[in-house]
Amino acid sequence: MPDADLAHERDYVRGLYRRLDELRDEKRGQLAAVRKAGAVGSVQNISERDAFAAMYEDRLAQLDAVEDRLVFGRLDLDDGEAQYIGRIGLSTDDLRRLMVDWRAPEASHFYQATAFDRQGVRRRRHLILQGRDVKAIEDDILDADMLEAGHHQGEGALLAALNSKRTGRMADIVSTIQAEQDRIIRAPMPGALVVQGGPGTGKTAVALHRAAYLLYSHRDRLKSAGVLLVGPSPSFMKYIERVLPSLGETGVVMSSLGRLMPGINAVPEEDPRVSRLKGSKRMVELVAAAVSNRQRIPSGDRIVDVEGQKLVLTPRQVRRARDKARATGKPYNEARNTFVKILLRELTEQLQSKLEASSVGNNADRSYLAEDVRQARDVRVALNLCWMPITPQKLLSELFSRRAILDTVATGLSGEEKDLLERPADAPWTEADIPLLDEAAELLGEPDAAGSTEAARREAERRRDLENAERTLANLNNALREQGVDGVVSAEDLADFQQAPGARLTAAERAVGDRTWAYGHIIVDEAQELSFMQWRLLVRRCPLKSFTIVGDIAQTSSAAGASSWSAALTPFFGDRWQLEELTVNYRTPSQIAESAARMAAAAGLTVSAPKAVREGQWPPIVDRVGAGTVVERLVAVMPEELEAADGGLVAVIAPEELVDSARNALREVYGARVGAGAGSFDQDIVVIDPREAKGLEFDAVVVLEPGRLVDEHHGRVGDLYVAMTRPTQRLRLIAADPLPAGIEAQFADA
Ligand SMILES: Nc1ncnc2c1ncn2[C@@H]1O[C@H](COP(=O)(O)OP(=O)(O)OP(=O)(O)O)[C@@H](O)[C@H]1O
């Protein structure tokens, strides 16, 4: 009987939360005990205790993170067993399984089974929770025989999720992952997987759940190498930042394209021509030329004074030393050490012969002379002029701010192109500069020898920690097994935990600060926006080329972005990438989705127009208004939009030049309810440009002057397509300028 079913599920779910509480108490107790023991005992004991404490903390954080909707599904199987599916796996003390982690192989049936392909499942049940209580249950009966037993129907867990109000933060979809999405989430890790999908098909959701899945199924490898997730902008990263923690995963490094170089926080590049040029393959040659240009052969002999003796440095000597140093194949700053050593030795020999000849220092100690040469200011200046140690920032800032250098180095660029590259030395770095800085860093290597020694020292220390870790691992794993945490600790984990207290960093934390970190897997969202140079940077960060690449070629708005996957990826992956498609739009109601697709098609954009999963309440609305009154109309219609959004989020997406006036006008009426753009999605009205809107979604969207978003001075068709596909409920366009062709035809009588 249905009500008895509900009572049973409530009871079971109460039991699961009880078990969760028990585990939390247990961890808290263990943590307190370890902390109480304090920092006494041998170094080995203390570091072991630190390791335990850190692991208890991590496990506790994970147990706390899964509180909300801990369990969401149940499968009734052919063999009569009932299997509960939730955010983590839970077992009793005597290892009887209470709930299966959604990422475990057997949980895939929850997402994949259909009436045609039951996969041993008779009934799939969705448990809809409110707090810790089961509010409703919904059944998909896959085995017709079960229909007789009666079943629970509702709006459908998926539709309920899709119709819910947006909060400005993305939520996980773990309870309603659809079969085509699940197949991608669980695809094997090696190689490059490209997920193409139109707007709202769940690409971002799939990317995030795949990160959680890979961390679960390849924990050993990924826990030490880490996963990097790259998105287009800081506001987008903020939008998605809560999803992985809600899935109990905190070990993913999330970065927008402007933050991929540690220590630099780049601003967007405003000029599309600059983005295009700085993103192009030609920059590889330019940066290499800029580096070589820093090695100079003097035009004539140079006299250097060492302790009153005149020594000569000839162009020939310098050339020979340079060639030998280059032949080491080391990066510029590291090869410089060889260059300097050779010339110091030669100058020392010269000094010695001079002293011998003048009989002043016949008995001079050679090492003492070498020190004299090394310390001499003249020598330092002369060597620096030939081969200056340099940082990537200095290299590029001088290249772009001194026309004379640019003219010498950029031989393949036109005058107009060089104009585009020129910028003041103190201008902030833009997103387009980041891959060039990275390219330069790669060619330059460590800026000074001390740095590389430090890196070597850290590595040696880590190797020692690893050996220690292996010794204590057996011990630790036994203890953990007693706590029901199985197989999660590797020697690497322990080595990380055993670092000195200040340096107790997870792989993710260490990776963030290390440009040369090699990730185990990289997930790229909105990947259509990436330039050649950005791809080059990312591939360098994952030498194994294990990538998940999600995006929609039709939504490209960056001038340096891709117009085909093959063109973008072949230079890096050859033909070793696999394409998967997502075909259902979960965000935008069908009337709006179709209107956006017709607009895009009329503008010549090839779109993969996904099938919308639901009908909306409203068709798109178009307001034609008189010149100069767009903002006025916006203010006039806002009450209607807010009412329709019913407490949800309303976004105004406007061409850049209208953003400020629209925001100011709305602020006069709505004050602090109006968000200031990127990262202000806690307010219920936001005014943004299409670039900031990328990847986000809102209950209602008002687009100002859609015609301008497609005109090539302002943006690309992709921008309007992005703007029109952001709403989950309602779309309004306000235009004084002519409407784009594809829209004009649809709303001829508007
Ligand atoms: N299986 C699902 N269950 C519930 N909600 C889903 C599901 N798949 C997608 N969604 C929801 O649909 C919306 C769109 O998803 P998402 O942002 O991942 O799409 P996208 O393909 O990245 O879109 P775009 O390319 O337009 O930015 C989100 O609100 C997401 O939570």
Please describe the topology of this protein.
Layout: H1 2-37, H2 43-65, E1 71-77, E2 82-86, E3 90-91, E4 97-101, H3 108-112, E5 121-130, E6 133-141, H4 157-163, H5 179-185, E7 192-197, H6 203-217, H7 219-225, E8 227-231, H8 234-240, H9 243-246, E9 252-256, H10 272-279, H11 282-292, E10 302-306, E11 309-313, H12 315-327, H13 332-357, H14 366-375, H15 377-386, H16 392-401, H17 403-409, H18 415-421, H19 434-444, H20 449-482, H21 491-497, H22 507-512, E12 521-524, H23 532-541, E13 547-551, H24 565-573, E14 577-582, E15 584-585, H25 590-602, E16 611-612, E17 621-624, H26 630-645, E18 650-653, H27 656-670, E19 674-675, E20 685-688, H28 690-693, E21 698-704, H29 706-710, H30 717-724, E22 727-735, H31 741-746
Bound molecules: adenosine-5'-triphosphate.
Notes on the structure:
This protein has four domains: 153 residues, no CATH class; 318 residues, 3-Layer(aba) Sandwich (Rossmann fold), CATH 3.40.50; 85 residues; 160 residues, Rossmann fold, CATH 3.40.50.300. It has 31 helices and 22 strands. About 4% of the residues have low confidence. With 750 residues, the protein is α/β, with parallel strands linked by helices. The longest helix has 36 residues. A six-stranded mixed β-sheet has the order 3-4-2-1-5-6. Helix 20 crosses helix 21 and helix 26 crosses helix 27. It starts with a helix and ends with a helix. The site of adenosine-5'-triphosphate has 23 residues, from helix 4 and helix 6. It comes from Sinomonas humi. This is ATPase AAA. Keywords: ATP-binding, Helicase, Hydrolase, Nucleotide-binding.
